[in-house]
Design brief:
The structure holds 2 protein chains of 2 kinds. By secondary structure, chain A is mainly α. Chain A has 15 helices and 8 strands. Chain A has one domain. In chain A, α4 runs antiparallel to α5. Chain A is globular. Chain B has one domain. Chain B has 14 helices and 2 strands; from the N terminus they run αααααααααααααββα. In chain B, about 50% of the residues are buried. The C terminus of chain B is likely disordered. Chain B is an all-alpha fold. Chain B has a two-stranded antiparallel sheet with strand order 1-2. The chains are: A mainly alpha, B mainly alpha. The interface between A and B is large, with 73 and 67 residues. Chain B: InterPro entries: Cyt-d_oxidase_su2.
């Protein structure tokens, strides 16, 4: 039997992994939609109208799936972690209440957009689409700010187990909010850009509606590629921030056991947490010190200097981190290739070019999920860094494992259903006249 | 600022009950309709709810966020002891939301529509029942509050608080109320010649609400439910209920006259009075446990939190409410001009 705490963590992880995909697509796709819509208004080429309408159905389906799974999450925070919410709820309430407001604006704007065709003035109608996108991104940033507080708790004094002198504004603007929000927003654009581009690339690869799908591909990949190219800057800011605030997380990301000056950066490798060794790795001397502290000789604290019971699951965090960085680098390279292809038009008639982007389609989301594993598993055993342990926050109700199985069943069916619906959309799109 | 927060709490609760309630009710009305009427209802529901249903359901998020920020103790008791019915509500909300969207946005119309339809209808009935059960659970007086919850059996701590006759009756009452609201709403939205379907439904729903209400109260009174006894003793609550019952007369008059706006207004007012009666009879002790009542206003978050929340709510309210109002208004006006225009084709 799975322990209650493990079941609760698995359920939370599972619902978050699910929600993030839908939330990101619901947040980024409106931008693709309004670009295509803009081009329709500008050029009056029918193909852009068809594309806009087909993307808007995608936006509607993903928005709703994201919204209902988000509603579930807002309850799950309390259902699974009542002790956490009892104390943290009031402190991090501000980003959540603003997020509620942003989400509301988004829902209202979506109502206008979806039902406003031929009814609202054209430019206003288009603008409601822009509002969907902006409020979606705002929502994302605010929720990430709340998560940032768990990594960098601030805005209160913790005295004798009590949270006193609460300042909700300072809690929202905690030291981690900016780096995390920037990293996540870029990640959302990268992941969704490459995923949507990949789907349309596949249609071109199979020689279906080449004009339409090429146009769709270009819009999506432009967002994805630019975000992928900017991401390393944000990653660097995040790494320096974590080195300062959560050195144990950084050490786990790098599977760095011994404290040393001029610490090397490991790439790859198999972690053995018993013997505290990493085998078969590639080392870059001094690089970790440089990346974390901008100094090749700086001292980086190793895991051995932290108490056992304050360390996360090292192999999991390390592998997840490697996956994220590896994919991020690959997507950056492919993003650059896309911009080169703008100068070398003949690439577009080469099927291998399209196949490359088809293969990239799922990678952005894999990297994004891996990144969240780094953040969340890397914070363990704390639910609030250095303040409250996850095991002290869990619900007293036994048998969470059954709730976990129920969620798995429902969400699996939902994922299959949404995928199947999207395939039907694409099929109908390919049968249309334009 | 506490009063601002309380205002928004009750405001969003009321709007969720009315708007979300009418939304759930639409599924219930569809469930209890003949096959031919189901098709008509499905189309009407889509026309009416389509642009606004997402907004309808955000009220519960606002509600829950206000609860956890400003009233953490209240929220804590709810999520610990009523874990199971809340989880069922969540699954219901999820399945219902996706079924609603799937059945209108699926690019291909075929037999899977039947699956979406039954998913939508069944979850439309189950979700409000369990929402009512959650509310019933909070006032049923069956929750045990102890320092150490492990001294209670699983049944005492996590099942009994909601799985009792009174809570279940409240659940059924709420579902009936949803059906009532929705029928009144749909009367105004249906095309000529189809109105009678919903007039009939509204009449049936009114009777069901009345009968279930009566049984709930008689049962509560006879088995000594504290909430019911206090309710009957409170003059304000009784006045609210009496006025709400009397409003049935003008409501029916307006319905038969075909006055859409006033009939909706009266139905909304009735529900408001019922809600007010439930709140006023025990306010501010909104949780009743075996050990006594727990006050909402005495167990609040620190003042700084309440202040910031109040300001956020005022700002949020001034941004969102006009937009929402405009959304409701513009589609209402447009709808009269272009009845059958499906925007997605």
């Amino acid at each position: 039997m799975i322990e209650n705490i493990d079941a609760a963590r698995l359920q939370m992880a599972f619902t978050l992994i699910f929600h993030i995909v839908f939330a990101c697509i619901g947040m980024v796709m409106p931008f693709f939609m309004v670009v295509s819509h803009y081009k329709w208004l500008k050029t009056r080429e029918q193909v852009y109208l068809t594309l806009t309408k087909s993307w808007q159905k995608g936006v509607a389906i993903f928005f709703v799936t994201g919204a209902v799974s988000g509603t579930a999450l807002s309850f799950e925070l309390g259902l699974l972690w009542p002790e956490f919410m009892k104390h943290a709820g009031p402190i991090i309430g501000m980003p959540f209440s603003l997020e509620g407001a942003a989400f509301f604006v988004e829902a209202v704007a979506l109502g206008f957009y979806l039902y406003g065709w031929n009814k609202l003035p054209e430019k206003f109608h288009w603008f409601t689409g822009v509002i969907i996108g902006i409020s979606g991104v705002m929502s994302g940033i605010l929720v990430v700010a709340a998560n940032g507080w768990m990594n960098a708790p601030s805005g209160f004094d913790y005295i004798n187990g009590e949270f006193l002198n609460v300042d909700p504004v300072q809690a929202m603007l905690n030291p981690a909010w900016f780096t995390q929000a920037l990293h996540m927003t870029l990640a959302a654009f990268t992941a969704t850009g490459f995923a949507v581009a990949g789907i349309h690339a596949y249609q071109v690869y199979r020689k279906r509606k080449i004009e339409l799908h090429t146009k769709a591909f270009k819009i999506a990949i432009t967002f994805g590629a630019i975000a992928a190219i900017l991401q390393p800057i944000s990653g660097d800011l995040s790494a320096k921030d974590i080195a300062k605030r959560q050195p144990v997380k950084l050490a786990a990301m790098e599977a760095h056991y011994d404290t040393e000056k001029g610490a090397p950066l490991f790439i790859g490798g198999i972690v053995n947490n018993e013997t505290k060794e990493v085998k078969y790795k590639i080392e870059f001397p001094g690089m970790l010190s440089f990346l974390a502290f901008s100094d090749f000789d700086a001292e980086v604290k190793g895991l051995n200097d932290f108490p056992e019971d304050e360390q996360p699951n090292v192999p999991m965090v390390h592998y997840a981190f490697q996956t994220m960085v590896g994919i991020g680098t690959l997507l950056l390279a492919v993003g650059v290739l896309y911009f080169i292809s703008l100068k070398r038009k003949r690439w577009l008639s080469n099927n291998k070019f399209w196949l490359l982007f088809v293969l990239m389609a799922p990678l952005g989301f894999i990297a994004l999920e891996a990144g969240w594993i780094v953040t969340e598993v890397g914070r363990q055993p704390w639910i609030i860094h250095k303040i409250m342990r996850t095991k002290d926050a869990v619900t007293p109700m036994p048998g969470i494992v059954f709730s976990f199985y129920t969620y798995i069943a429902v969400y699996t069916v939902l994922s299959i259903a949404v995928t199947w619906l999207m395939l039907r959309q694409i099929k109908v799109l390919n049968q249309s006249n334009i | 600022m506490l009063y601002v927060v309380l205002f928004f709490l009750i405001f969003s609760l009321y709007l969720y009950v009315v708007l979300g309630g009418a939304d759930y009710g639409a599924g219930i009305v569809e469930l209890f309709s003949s096959e031919e009427n189901q098709k008509i209802t499905k189309k009407t529901v889509y026309r009416v709810m389509g642009p606004v249903w997402e907004a309808n359901h955000i009220w519960i998020i606002i509600l829950i966020v206000i609860l956890w920020i400003a009233f953490p103790v209240y929220y804590n008791i709810m999520v610990v002891h009523l874990h199971i019915p809340i989880t069922i509500v969540l699954l219901g909300v999820t399945l219902r939301g996706v079924a609603f969207v799937f059945r209108h946005y699926d690019a291909v119309i075929d037999n899977t529509q039947k699956l979406y339809d039954s998913m939508f209808k069944i979850s439309s009935l189950i979700t409000p029942i369990f929402l009512g059960i959650v509310f019933g659970g909070l006032i049923s007086g069956k929750i045990h509050i102890t320092e150490d919850i492990s001294t209670l059996s699983f049944y005492e701590a996590f099942i009994l608080p909601w799985f009792n006759t009174f809570s279940i009756m409240v659940g059924l009452f709420f579902a009936a109320l949803c059906a009532f609201l929705s029928s009144v709403l749909l009367i105004g939205e249906s095309k000529e010649g189809k109105k009678n379907i919903y007039v009939r439904k509204a009449a049936i729903a009114t009777i069901v609400v009345f009968v279930i209400g009566l049984i709930t109260f008689s049962y509560g009174y006879l088995s000594g439910i504290v909430f019911v006894k206090d309710f009957l003793k409170s003059p304000y609550a009784m006045i609210c209920v009496a006025v709400s019952a009397l409003l049935l007369l003008p409501l029916w008059k307006k319905i038969t006259q075909g006055d859409i706006i006033w009939s909706r207004f009266f139905a909304g007012l009735q529900v408001f009075l019922i809600l007010l009666a439930a709140l006023v009879s025990h306010f501010p002790d909104v949780i009743i446990t075996q050990e006594g009542s727990i006050s909402l206003v005495e167990n609040i978050a620190p003042e700084s939190v309440i202040n910031v929340l109040g300001i956020s709510l005022i700002i949020g309210g001034t941004v969102i409410l006009p937009g929402l109002f405009h959304l409701l208004k513009s589609f209402k006006m447009i709808k009269i001009l272009e009845q059958n225009n499906n925007p997605l084709i």
